[in-house]
Write a structure and sequence with these properties.
Blueprint (H helix, E strand, L loop, with lengths): L7 E2 L9 H18 L3 H9 L3 E2 L3 H11 L11 H9 L5 H11 L6 H15 L8
Helix pairs in contact: 1-3, 3-6, 4-5
Length: 132
Amino acid sequence: MKTIICFVFVLAGAWALTKEQIDKLEPISKECRELNGISEDTILKVRRGEAVNEPKLKNHVLCVSKKTGLASETGETNVEVLRTKLRKVSENDDEVNSIIQKCVVKKSTPEETAFEIFVCLRKVKPNFSPAN
């Protein structure tokens, strides 16, 4: 019998996105929700910083990353795109470089990498939106 391992993700704090950022992100999120079969309720919980037990979440985050240019079609992180987007919510280039160095760490799968980058960015820049 196979054991399905579900991950529990606790993302600290509410995501500090503006209405404009949410409006830009929503069509992308909706498309990825439909592709991955993740519920809107789950996404709303993540945005509020609630604990989520959903194995499809990492696939969703990778999908959003691809559609916003943060990841290539093969799942590689597009660091220059991330740098450009971070500059919109950062004080200076030193801070941007520090965030990239801290958050962009390649994991065993593209899904894991995209998800860990997402978690890290939420911690260090809660007002960051991949849709900006």
